[in-house]
Write a sequence for this structure.
């Protein structure tokens, strides 16, 4: 803003009012305190800064056990609250802090925001920007004061900020002036940003700022400088990002090994308290800039500044680093299946369950005592009238739920959690509702609050599926006998309970043939998609001789499975040739004038399939004609069957060459596969054989008796 000095005298009659105007009630401020989320007491944790112009204070809210840090709530204010000496931030350890922030409800008219500041300024509790006579809202109570249009470098500007500090700003008002008339008026920090934002940097470092020269020609030539600021790790949005009349959750995670601070904004729903994704950024901190003496400790707190406009800036702390380090998590277990129900999983209706809330005290300066539990239990579950609390020290207690309404359980833990008694498990039991269709159960928040720490946890999002009795009937009887080569068809009927909205195409059939699972299939729609009738066919080549067992069950989309129906398919046993070559040959041979054996080619094939009951016998016979040419000239030589060292001539009279006995398996005997060059059928030609192409007919006979 531009500063001008006015000299004037006002004469009048009547009362004179000194020191400003009449105070007015601020409805937004009152509503913010009434709607404050659950937090902790700030007594001995944060204290107001000691500068004379500091307007910050610790105030009570309407939420039990919760105090708020009021940073600003009026025009032309500077506010600062700092951690007490006993609650400095330990830079040598991994730390987590969580809080709720409020930025008023004036949207685009909001000003100016506030900052979360970590500082080792030599002024300690009196750390403040060098405002001079006028408070500059642009500084948010921590950045440098840009009021000198002649400074061309940022050294003086940085020196006016809180020193040895790192700040995360929540800026609700854009400061984007960029002409000569704004040079040196502290209204240019936000440069090209388009809306409210979060960002971080080092207020006391000259590298955080850039000095921009601005000139004018009329009414007289002049030049001056204005400052812009580097916004690292910016999270930006429109004017509903911050000053929208809602509380906003922030989580800080400090990694002492990597020297990184991760801040996650809007990671909890302000109405339900349920966890949500939020937006995160990570800052790499240079400890030389904020802890030059290498103390490993740093003061932290909140600052704010306003000009001619303002908003209500409030902070409710959930978790203060080092005070109490505790966590909570939930586990839902289906007691009938002994399965844990995680996000997206299914709990069957009418099944018994156990819902556990486990509190874990990890470390801290204080014990966690008088912990008040406020739990919104998940819907669609019928709870037993008593819950149980089990502590690691062996003690147990009960919680009476008989008077519980709207699934809200509230009670106080009787035992403090500490290093000697670090865990408490609160167990709710009951039965899942008997639903007729799937019901999605949203996450429900539970908070565990003491004056020195608040821990929250959500249940998983799960589905309660109906438990249904499905009845499968066979419309084909219990068995069938087929001729070899025939297929089998099973006709079934699935009956779905009345009042359940399921159709044929919702149902899946699980068939098993002879102990081997077959491909599942959906019931066909049929004429009206609700008859429950279906057919299942088994191809002939899937059936073995003898007894085949087909088992079928039907499953609905909710995991309910019907009774199993067994269907017996009997196929009489067979003895037959599975493969016989229609044409086989011997190798082409050069006659030498001497007797010789002629080898078979690879086109010989004789396979026997025996699917009869175990113990049945069979025999194989061979017979053949003489080899002759097409003109009728007979070959000088003979066909023999060699078995070991014995050979027998093959004649027109059938000769038994092999026998076998069936087993309890479908036996396939490869007759030719057992022959080598000197076994089986061998052609011998005499020395006086005449050249030509000879053929003969060979007959194989399979007998089902020896």
């Amino acid at each position: 803003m531009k500063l001008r000095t006015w000299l004037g005298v006002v004469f009048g009659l009547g009362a004179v009012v000194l020191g400003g105007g009449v105070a007015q009630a601020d409805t937004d401020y009152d509503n913010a305190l009434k709607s404050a989320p659950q937090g902790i007491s700030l007594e001995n944790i944060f204290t107001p800064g000691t500068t004379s112009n500091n307007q910050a204070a610790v105030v009570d809210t309407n939420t039990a056990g919760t105090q708020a840090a009021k940073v600003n709530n009026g025009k032309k204010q500077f506010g600062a609250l700092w951690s007490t000496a006993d609650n400095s931030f330990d830079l040598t350890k991994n730390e987590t802090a969580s809080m709720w922030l409020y930025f008023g409800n004036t949207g685009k008219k909001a000003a100016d925001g506030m900052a979360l500041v970590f500082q080792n300024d030599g002024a300690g509790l009196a750390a403040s920007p060098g405002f001079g006579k006028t408070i500059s809202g642009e500084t948010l109570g921590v950045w440098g004061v840009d009021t000198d249009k002649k400074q061309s470098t940022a050294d003086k500007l940085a020196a006016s900020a809180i020193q040895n500090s790192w700040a995360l700003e929540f800026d609700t008002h854009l400061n984007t002036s960029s002409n000569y008339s704004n040079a040196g008026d502290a209204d240019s920090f936000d440069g090209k940003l388009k809306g409210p934002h979060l960002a971080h940097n080092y207020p006391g470092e000259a590298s955080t700022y850039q000095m921009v020269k601005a000139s004018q020609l009329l009414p007289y030539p002049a030049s001056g400088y204005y400052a812009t600021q580097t916004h690292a790790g910016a999270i930006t949005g429109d004017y509903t990002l911050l000053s929208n009349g809602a509380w906003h959750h922030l989580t800080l995670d400090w990694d002492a090994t990597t020297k990184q601070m991760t801040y996650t904004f809007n990671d909890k729903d302000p109405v339900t308290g349920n966890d949500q994704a939020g937006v995160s950024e990570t800052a790499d901190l240079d400890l030389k800039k904020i802890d030059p003496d290498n103390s490993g400790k740093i003061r932290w707190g909140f600052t704010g500044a306003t000009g001619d406009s303002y908003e209500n800036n409030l902070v409710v702390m959930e978790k203060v680093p080092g005070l109490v380090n505790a966590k909570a998590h939930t586990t839902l277990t289906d007691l009938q299946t002994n399965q844990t129900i995680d996000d997206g999983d299914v709990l069957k209706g009418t099944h018994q369950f156990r819902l556990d809330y486990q509190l874990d005290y990890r470390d801290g300066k204080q014990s966690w005592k008088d912990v008040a539990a406020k739990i919104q239990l998940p819907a669609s579950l019928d709870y037993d009238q008593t819950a149980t609390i089990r502590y690691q020290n062996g003690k147990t207690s009960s919680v009476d739920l008989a008077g519980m309404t709207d699934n809200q359980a509230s009670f106080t833990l009787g035992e403090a959690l500490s290093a000697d008694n670090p865990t408490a498990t609160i167990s709710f039991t009951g039965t899942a509702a008997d639903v007729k269709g799937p019901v999605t159960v949203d996450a429900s928040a539970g908070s565990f609050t003491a004056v020195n720490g608040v821990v929250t946890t959500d249940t998983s999002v799960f589905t309660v599926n109906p438990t249904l009795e499905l009845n499968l009937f066979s419309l084909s009887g219990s068995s069938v006998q087929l001729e070899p080569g025939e297929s089998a068809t099973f006709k079934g009927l699935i009956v779905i309970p009345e009042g359940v909205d399921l159709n044929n195409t919702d149902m899946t059939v699980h068939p098993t043939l002879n102990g081997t699972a077959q491909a599942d299939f959906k019931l066909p729609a049929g004429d009206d998609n609700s008859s429950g009738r279906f057919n299942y066919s088994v191809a002939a080549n899937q059936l073995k001789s003898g007894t085949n067992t087909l088992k079928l069950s039907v499953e609905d989309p909710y995991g309910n499975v019907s009774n199993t129906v067994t269907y017996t398919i009997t196929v009489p046993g067979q003895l037959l040739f599975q493969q016989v070559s229609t044409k086989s040959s011997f190798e082409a041979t050069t006659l030498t004038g001497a007797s010789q054996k002629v080898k078979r080619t690879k086109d010989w094939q004789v396979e026997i399939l025996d699917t009869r009951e175990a113990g049945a016998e069979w025999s194989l016979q061979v017979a053949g004609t003489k080899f002759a040419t097409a003109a009728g000239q007979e070959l000088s030589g003979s066909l023999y069957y060699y078995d070991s060292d014995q050979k027998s001539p093959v004649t027109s009279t059938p000769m038994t060459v092999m026998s076998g006995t069936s087993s309890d398996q479908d036996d396939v005997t490869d007759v030719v596969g057992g022959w080598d060059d000197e076994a089986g059928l061998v052609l011998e030609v005499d020395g006086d054989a005449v050249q030509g192409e000879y053929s003969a007919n060979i007959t194989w006979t399979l007998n089902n008796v020896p």
